[in-house]
Design brief:
Blueprint: E1 5-11, H1 19-29, E2 35-40, H2 58-69, E3 72-77, H3 86-96, E4 109-114, H4 122-134, E5 145-147, H5 163-183
Parallel strand pairs: 1-2, 1-3, 3-4, 4-5
């Protein structure tokens, strides 16, 4: 296993200034030196269509290739109607196809859910975890990271301003680093 782990962050919100994207960037700033976190965009992905399995659009192929190169995946999701947003589900579908060629299989994962509401995206977090079980992605169980009232936790520069949240984020990333090292294929 490499000294520095390449982790892609797949952010479920497309909005440029989304709380989920901002929190993921702030979380990345807390990462230990052994963990390199890069947000991989999903906004340019076409809608998944099984008819394209034999001739995938270039954006889908580039996304699949980037996921495949990574040691692990951090999924960061907002909550839409007590579930994950459509663009995130679409990205998951693109990565899982064609059948038998999933780039997700065996890749260690972690989930953070972000919300301006009190439950911290609990519903989205657990819906996403259900899909990750099917995709055969060993997913970090503890510590869990549900971020409620996110707008009050970030300062004007985009950093995590709340000490308890900063501590939890740091613990989460250290645990994720250890999880990846224990569960990475090969």
């Amino acid at each position: 296993m490499a000294d520095t782990l390449d982790v892609v962050a797949v952010v479920g919100s497309l909005r440029r200034e989304s709380f989920t994207r901002r929190f993921t960037q702030a979380l990345g700033a807390l990462a230990p030196p052994s963990l390199k976190l890069e947000i991989v965009g999903i906004g340019d992905l076409p809608l998944y269509n099984q008819d394209d399995d034999d001739n995938s659009p270039a954006a889908s192929e580039a996304f699949r290739a980037r996921i495949k190169r990574a040691h692990a995946v951090l999924f960061a999701t907002p909550e839409y109607n007590r579930s994950l947003p459509g663009p995130l589900k679409n990205a998951i579908d693109i990565g899982s196809r064609p059948a038998g060629k999933s780039v997700w299989a065996g890749k260690p994962a972690a989930v953070v859910s972000v919300s301006p509401y009190a439950m911290g995206g609990f519903g989205a977090n657990h819906h996403l975890r259900q899909a990750l079980v099917y995709l055969d992605m060993p997913t970090l169980q503890q510590p869990e990271l549900y971020v409620a009232r996110v707008e009050s936790l970030l300062d004007a520069s985009g950093k995590i301003a709340n000490a308890d949240t900063k501590d939890l984020g740091t613990k989460f990333l250290k645990a994720f680093d250890a999880w990846i090292r224990r569960n990475a294929p090969g």
